[in-house]
Amino acid sequence: MDPDQVDLLKRLTESFGPSGFERETASVVKEEMEGVADSCRVNKLGSVLFERRGTSDAPKVLVAAHIDEVGFCVTGIDDTGFLSFTPLGGWFDQVLLGQRVTVRTRNYDLEGVIAATPPHLLSEEKRKKVVKQEDMYIDIGTSSRKESEDLGVRTGDPVTPKSDLSLIHRGKIAMGKAFDDRIGTFVAMEAVKRLKAEKVSHPNTVIGAATTQEEIGARGARTVAHDVEPDVCLVVEADVSGDVPGCSDKTAPAKMGNGAAILTYDRSMVPNQPLKDFVISAAEEEKIPHQLSIITKGGTDAGAIHVSGSGCPSLVIGVPTRHIHSHVGLLSLADVDAVCRLLIACITRLDRDTVDSFTAL
Description:
The protein is of the alpha+beta class. The termini are far apart. Strands 1, 2, 3, 10, 11, 12, 13, 14, 15, 16 and 17 form an eleven-stranded mixed beta sheet that branches. The protein has a six-stranded antiparallel beta sheet with strand order 5-4-9-6-7-8. It is 28% helix and 26% strand.
């Protein structure tokens, strides 16, 4: 990545944007794409749509990625000033304790830490039990309800992990928060930028969409699909990288560093099979590193988009990412480039006849 690309990825991933509170991240996308896309707008649920017109108005190719990150919401303040909270999106309780967070209040952002009873005060029996999220609290350094309220905290305030972007392993690996799915957003933006910068001819109109509220029900995707009425959709996601202890190829076959992950199945969608074969062929023809993936639990924006209107052929292309839905994920920048190249290879091939063939009998 060049310095400008790293800067964009940093601004995207470090921005504050849990589900339902994505305005800051959306502003980064809008500001970046207004000077690149042929048009750029924000819909009523906060998703940003940026268009690149090719040699034809149709087919309409939707390239979607969500900008919301998993986070939390303040549910109350106790008498000693500590904050109770509930998740926004799916969290595994064991990754929460001891992690720094940012609480966004009506006044300003506050730093805090997710804490619980110290081990010194726990019985042997309690030490062996997993601490549940409902028994944790956020400590922002106050000692009374009034102190916390005077800082501007109130029920309903959003909270995100506090985690900066770093490049490690000689700059080959990115480490940070919110790769699910700011990395997909980055790729969608980068693809549209390359189409313009390299004057790439494509027989369609591409609509990039940075969608909201995916982690709590793909709500932004539903409204974007209604808005765009796409002929075909490619969703760019952070795939689960299974090359970590405790995972198996049966449940998470994608591996960091092995190229773009083409999702063959998840709980929300069985992809359009001709479209899947088309994407695999494009990767093979362009000699782009790729791998087939499957996710037995969870879903993506494609789950909502593929059943929009009378249906839309859809597929997910993923960047394998370790430790998603935690404070710190890892991914390979080579995989990011592979996904971007594959996306462009598909876009240049998606003419009217090809798209029609995905649903022809």
